Amino acid sequence: MVLPMEDRYSVTRNQLLDQIAYALGGRAAEEIVFHDPTTGASNDFEKATKIARQMVTLYGFSSSVGVVSYGGGGEVFIGRDMAQAREYSDEVAHQIDVEIRKILDNAHDEAYRALNTNRKVLDAMAKELMEKETLNPDDIKRIFKAVKKVPKRKLWLSKTSRPVSRKGPIPIPAKGSTTAKVAAKKRADAKATKEAAKKSASKKLTAKKPVPKKPAPKKPAPKKPAAKKPARAVKKK
């Protein structure tokens, strides 16, 4: 399965070769099934050529051209306009053309071999498409169970004189593993601590001085009741 290019930050050389072989699969299928290809693959050729050109002129994926960037003008070398300005010699331009064609030819051969080896899968896919018009992921997964994988590509080095390192990369913890969970928790805790520190500092800077409270007014003392005058005695006549 080929993932969209925009979903990756970086792409390996083999992944780019997969993209080219994938783009040329339509033409290869026409050659295998009908023995008479159509013009429908022209857009695929354009895409494949663009990727191959970038591999040679931008990414340094050619042993003969080397790790040099020749893609400043963005021109397509195969079928290019000779009047277009460039900063390299005719010899280099020819070398670039040869490398691009080599990549495209090899990818075309890969696509042809893969489809020819899996002709039954190709026919099963075509049959279901004619019946359903649209296939869901489960349909594709079921059909692809019978796929026979093609051999892996040979190891590529930018220079054959360089020694091959037999030591692989360090293992990467799988998602959901204990190591990955611990690392993720540490990152989350560190982020939370940092955010809390920022908020605390911000509060200290913006905090207002407390306004002193005014003392409550004293309540007046209750008035004592006036003393009653003693009643005068009335004399009887």
UniProtKB/TrEMBL annotation:
Compositional bias (Basic residues): 200-237
Basic and acidic residues: compositionally biased ranges: 186-198
Keywords: ATP-binding, Hydrolase, Metal-binding, Metalloprotease, Nucleotide-binding, Protease, Zinc
Residue intervals of the Peptidase M41 domain: 2-143
GO biological processes: proteolysis
Stretch list, region Disordered: 158-237
Entries under Pfam families matching the protein: Peptidase_M41
Organism: freshwater metagenome
Alphabetized GO MF terms: ATP binding; ATP-dependent peptidase activity; metal ion binding; metalloendopeptidase activity
UniProt cross-references to Gene3D superfamilies, sorted A to Z: Peptidase M41 (1.20.58.760)
InterPro entries: ATP-dep_Zn_Metalloprotease, Peptidase_M41, Peptidase_M41-like
Protein name from the UniProt record: Unannotated protein
